[in-house]
Every structure is written in C-alpha cells, then in structure tokens.
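User: Hi! Is it possible to get a structure for several chains at once, not just one? Here's what I have:
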Amino acid sequence: MDYAAQQIINALSFGAEYALLALGLAIVFSVMGLVNFAHGEVIAVGGYTMVAFAALVTANPLIIIVGAVAATALTSVALERVAFRPVRYADPTTGLLTAFGVSIVLQNLFLLFISPRPIAVTSLYFLDAPVMVFGVQISSLQIFESVTTVVVIIGLVLFLQRTTLGLAMRAASLDFEMVRLTGIRANRVFALAFLISGLLAGLACIFIMARRGSVDPHFGFNPVLKAFVACVVGGFGSLPGAVLGGFLLGAVEVAMLVLLPQEYGGLKDAFVFGIIALVLVWRPDGILSPAKEKGDKL
Amino acid sequence: MLDIQNLRVFHGPIEAVHGISLSVGTGQCVALLGPNGAGKTSTISAICGIAQASGTIALEGADLAKVTVEDRIGRGIAVSPEGRRIFSNLSVEANLRIGGGIRADRENVRADIERWFDTFPILGERRAQPGGTLSGGEQQMLAIARALMSKPKILLLDEPSLGLAPRIVAQVFQMISTLRAEGMTILLVEQNARQALQISDYGYLLNNGRIQAEGTAEELGGSKDMMAKLTGLG
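Assistant: Yes, the chains can be modeled jointly so their relative placement is included. Here is the combined structure:
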C-alpha cells in the first residue's frame, strides 16, 4: 500500500514538473504558433544564474532562487525582442528554425564562455529532504513541486480569466489578428507570453536543479523534449492540454518504471513513447486540442 | 472624418483595389457596395492597416500611412469584420471586455457592457456562454457591440448581413439604423445593396477593384442597369 502511494506521489511530482515545462512551451505556442525549442536553454540560463549567484553573490538559497527565476524571465523576454519578434509574421517554419538557431547559439555560448562540464550547485539540496506524510515517506521536493504547480495553475487560470491581457492571450490563441483589431497591442501580448513562459522555466529550473544538483550546456534538452511530448499529447495550443499531457507523461513514466520487468528497464522510454503514440492514434491532434475556428477573411 | 485617395490594395503580388477614392463625413453612413471579389473587404483591411496598401488614408485629416493597426484602433477606428470573428472560446462578456480593452476608464467599460446587455437582452442572458455557441445573428450583434466597446469615431461594418436569415438581417439593419441616428459615423460594406442604401447617406459601387458609380441612394437607384449588373438590385 505504501509502495503504491509512493509511486502515485512520484507520478504526481514528475507530472507537475512536466506540466510546468509544458505550460511554458504551450503559452508561447498558443499566442504565436511557435514551438520554442530554445525554452530548454532558458531553463539552463536559470541553472547558470544559480551557479553565478552561489559563487559570487550569496549562499542564501532564497536569493539564488529569486535570481534564477528573474534571469529566466528576462532571458525569455529578451529572446522575444531580439530573435522572435523579427520573424513574428513569417512562415511558421521560419520561427521553428529561429528557435533551433537560438537554442544552438545559447548552447555554444555556454560551452565557450562557461564550461563544457557540469557545474554543481548544492544550495538547493535542502529542498530534497525526506518527510513522513500519513505514514508514507516522501521527498519534500515532491511536495514543493506539486504545490507550486497547483499554485501556478490557479494563478494562470485567474490571470487568463480575470484580466483583459489574459483574455487577450486566450483570444489570440484563436484569432490573433482580430485581437489586434480590437486595439490591444501585439507587442504587449507577445512579450507577456514570453515573460510567463520564462517565469515557468525558472520555476521548473529550481526543481530540476534541486534534483540534479548540476548544470551543463545541454541541461535544457531533456526538459524541453518532455515538454514538447506533453504538449503534443495534451494538444498543442491548449493550456489545459499541456497540464494534462504533463501529468499523463509523468504517470506513464512512473507506471513503466514500476511495471516493466528489470531486464526491460532499458526499454522504458520506448514503452513510454509507444503508449504516447497510441494516444495520438486515438486523438491525432492531442487529447484537448483547441477547436480551429475563424471567419472567412479580412 | 475618413478620407481615402487613390487607394491601391495588394495581396502579395496581386493588386485587388486599383486606386479608389472615397470619403465618409462625420455622422454619415456611407455604403460600399459590390459583388464578391469587388475589393470591398480589401478596402476595409487597408483602412485597418492589415493589408498592404498605397495611396492616402486620412482620419480627421491625419494620414494613417505609418500608423500601426493598434494605433489606428486607438485613434478611433473600429471594425466588425466579415465572418464576425467572435472569440468563440471566450464568453460573451469576455468578448465585450476585450472590445473595451484599450479604454482606461474600466468602470465605464463595465457599465457599457451592462448597457449592451440591456440593449440586447439575449446577449445578457448568455453573458457567460462561449461566443461560439451563439446563433449567427447573435454573433453579429456581439461583433458590432464588441467593436463599439472601444468608443470609436468611425465604425467599419463588413458584410453584417452575410449568412443571416432575412428576419435577422432586418434586425441587424435596424441596429445600424439606430447607430446612425445616434450620430455614429459608419462605413458599411454590403452586397445587400437595397437595404444598405436605404439606411445610407451616400454609396459607392465597387467592381473589380474600381469604383463604377457613386451617389445618393436615389442617384444610384437611377443607374438601374449598373445596379442590376453589380448587385442584383433592379
């Protein structure tokens, strides 16, 4: 029983992390139609900021965390301004290639100017302590992760439902041109989408760093891959879909870890992606893909 | 209010409108009529700034050539586009809130939304429903109300009767008539020439990207051959 509870908490915790990552991709995609593969490097910027703060500024973990989240948010907004804004109205392929380009450039900057080797940050280990909850031992990191994701989702829902800019972002996912025709500034909506994406990258970075304890130039690859898969499963462009996809991916991963015989352990990812493929056979556009609806012309 | 001179509109390499000139005076309702493909919607797109264009578009004497789409709306242009383009994933109320999104007077925005719900009780009853669940006529009313939420100086209406049942078309034209009576400046793009001219001060007949005739309803009604040919109005 304890084992089952432990695995459910594991699935929720992994799912929460993937949901945070997927939301970061989905919020930009929903507004701009861009799959921002540079999102992983934004997360890496957070990791390197932690390294810099820990080495040069302070050992206070709270300041390190705030610094990392601020750095990812600023980096995301800066990338929008410098790299993505010029190709905003270009063909989607151009945006995709730009994202890959930005990702490669940032990885090479990390390699050239920081280090090709992993750099350890031990400041966040305190987040990962064993805690007994109803007789089940779990990691405090799992609690932080799940609580943070729930708070973020509630905050995002309130923002998207209660504020004009939030409504504009939701409307933009359906018909961006019409949003402009109501006078709401495109630049503001795009910048806000990237700001939120950057904040989510920063939060995800905290949990990944607390678990891994080090950052390297390819730090962001695996998270962005997971985020991409979660978005595809949930339905690209759908924010609830991103959350659902994240939790589903977390659940399937943990289920495969638990259910696969030890000799097939190396095939875990193959089974996970096989199940994802089956889901996509059932729902080719993702489980909660947004409806495509638009007027004739203008 | 709105003065257009030698307007040419391009969709990529294709020129859709070939140097038309028209004007809409303050408080006037001007109809831009013509068959499918005449260039009516292209003209509206150019006025809004979303289509590539050359020539002069001036609002209250100020040239809009270098003004962004958002700033044109900020300066007082509002559009109810062809196909209505309601944000179907948002509630009726949220659609109206976005319409008033550029206004600084938040309290008045709320009051204006309530006013629209009083004007169109059916929208009020469905204020929490997604816009996409409304009927065509209700969506058209919502699209016009959304456009008016920005408190515009001029309202561009693109084919407001398109795809609606005759009874609903009459309601929509009644709404436009009321707006005109309240002093709203309107550029009305329509294929339904007969009804459009009934509520307009002046009309332009557009075909193949060129203005073929212009005048008051009486004058245009006199050019029966051309009217019949272009719009089906005998």
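Chain B touches chain A at residues 41, 44-45, 48, 50, 69-70, 73-74, 79, 81-85, 87-90, 94, 97-99, 101-102, 132, 146, 150, 158 (CB under 8 Å). Chain B has ten helices and ten strands.

User: Great, thank you!
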